[in-house]
Amino acid sequence: MNAKVYVTLKPGVLDPQGKAIHGSIELLGFAGIADVRQGKYFELTLEGVTSSEEARATVERLADEVLANPVIENYRVEIEG
After folding, report:
1. Domains assigned to the chain
2. DSSP symbols for 13-47
3. Gap between the terminal Cα atoms of the chain
4. Around Cβ 50, how many Cβ atoms within 10 Å?
5. What would the pLDDT profile of 3-37 be if each residue is shown by its tens digit?
6. Per-residue pLDDT tens for 38-57?
């Protein structure tokens, strides 16, 4: 079974890396980009899980405790297979 985890900064949290990327985009001549927010993406391959519910519970716990900082970040989990 596979899982995808998307981690993004919560609204209102400053994103200096996103601002730097936005500045570079403008310097390269791209127009119409109002803002850039960066995040993290993880792909996980799970073994030994018997159901989507078990996989989701495991991955959500991993995201909450390891992959994301719940104080300043949100995460979204997708289970495949």
Report:
1. 2-80 (3.30.1280.10)
2. S--HHHHHHHHHHHHTT--S------EEEEEEE--
3. 5
4. 8
5. 999 999 999 999 999 999 999 999 999 999 999 99
6. 999 999 999 999 999 999 99
